[in-house]
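Review form for a predicted model. The reviewer records the input and the model, then writes brief findings.
Reviewer: anonymous (R2)
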Amino acid sequence: MDANLPLSAASSLSSGNWPWLSLICLLPAAMAPVLMLLPGDSNDPRLPRSIALAVLLADLLLMVWVFSQRFDGSSSALQLVERVPWLPSLGLEWSLAADGLSAPLVVLSGLVTLLSVAASWNIHQKTRLYFALLLLQASAQALVFLSQDFLLFFLSWELELVPVYLLIAIWGGTQRQYAATKFILYTATASLLILLSGLALALSGDHFTLNLSELAARSPGGTFGLLCYLGFLIGFGVKLPMFPLHTWLPDAHGEANAPVSMLLAGVLLKMGGYALLRFNVQMLPEAHVQLAPALIVLGIVNIVYGALNAFAQDNVKRRIACSSVSHMGFVLLGIGAVDSLGLSGAMLQMISHGLIAAAMFFVTGVFYERTKTLSIPNMGGLAKVLPITFAFFLASSLASLALPGMSGFVSEITVFLGVTSNNAFTVPFRIIAVVLAAIGLVLTPMYLLSLCRRVFFGPRIPALAVVGDMKPRELVIGLCLLVPTLTIGFWPRIAIDFYEASTTALANDLARHSLVALGRLPALG
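Model under review:
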């Protein structure tokens, strides 16, 4: 066995275990070419849609089984480790593993992707390509969360950009080319910073390595560590999205169809938060401790600016997109808190927002299919003709505005507690941070309930007087997103138990580096 293999790899491939993580990652991508080779009309959605649904359902069930039966949430170590030399000349390995940071997000991505396929019932253009891209996207997402080799991570990060670009550019709205081009320009430019920072870390030690565990063990500090940290922060901040790097998001959501918006909000934004935890916090703790106050400031700006910007939007999806900018600010706030409560809140906020935002975009797609408009001034009185749709949208809105009993409340209050309980910050700083961030809690009900009032109440638009309500298929999709939201709201341990050991280990490492910075401990290593 390789001497450099982490201790947690004792139960890896050499012990005869199945490569479960590889199966999870490769199953959807392996079926994508099959869809492209199907005979018959390329615009007939029935067969490719059924195959995509079956594959993603099997993949989700495999995820649930693996992480419920073979994953130990009480351990912060890497588990289910798989390491196979791929391109030794480049130092590239097929290296996969799961821990508390990745396991819940893999399951979230599997659920949201499956439901986005189920929501794509009215796709009748190039359907084989459409569903093949969704399968490819599912594999790329899982690889991003499970990769333990930097180059493999980077290739996966780049791979998931291609399906999203095509899904927006081909099946989007009237301004789809502009939105897709803006998306790819922002994310591709950010990727260059990620690559440069990652390679700099790989070359910084006694020997070249791309293994994430070995890179984390180096923990470089000083000016070099700060520069790498800033490179990662900007690169991953675009995907989060972080102000002022967020402007691609409203355009992408405004032009993408509802299933693609579900993926954007439910999964892609979480990649940015996950990568900040994996690279900025875990690999560069010294730099993170120094820049944590700046992250809190950026998080507050995200929260308040996103909420204020939502008021200016007369397009339903653009308003929800700005809401996502605001809510992802709580992830930055939790990461900047540098204690176990804050990091736990950041993880819970990613899981919660993934479910809630996917639900909101899905229900928006439901009434768009009926009304053929997303313009708020052109809608009204829909509650009488779409009562079930209204109920689902209102429930999603209440979850988004952090109503007690919903997952959004638990995650946001945990972030606030993380900021207030951290003695590393002065008392005035903590008070000011919490008060300013709380402005978002006040603004969110205002713009979301105002949206509900304008769309579903008021004078009924004559052209929208007779529309059909949600169908059984749509009810099932909505329930699959809202039931977990309520479950986590009343029983948050069901999610926290997956990642608590990992966030606690991260917080302990940050605390140790904080003490070193204050001179209370000798320098590490």
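Findings: The two ends are 26 Å apart (CA to CA).
Further findings: Confidence is low (pLDDT under 50) at residues 1-16, 519-525.
Recommendation: see findings above.
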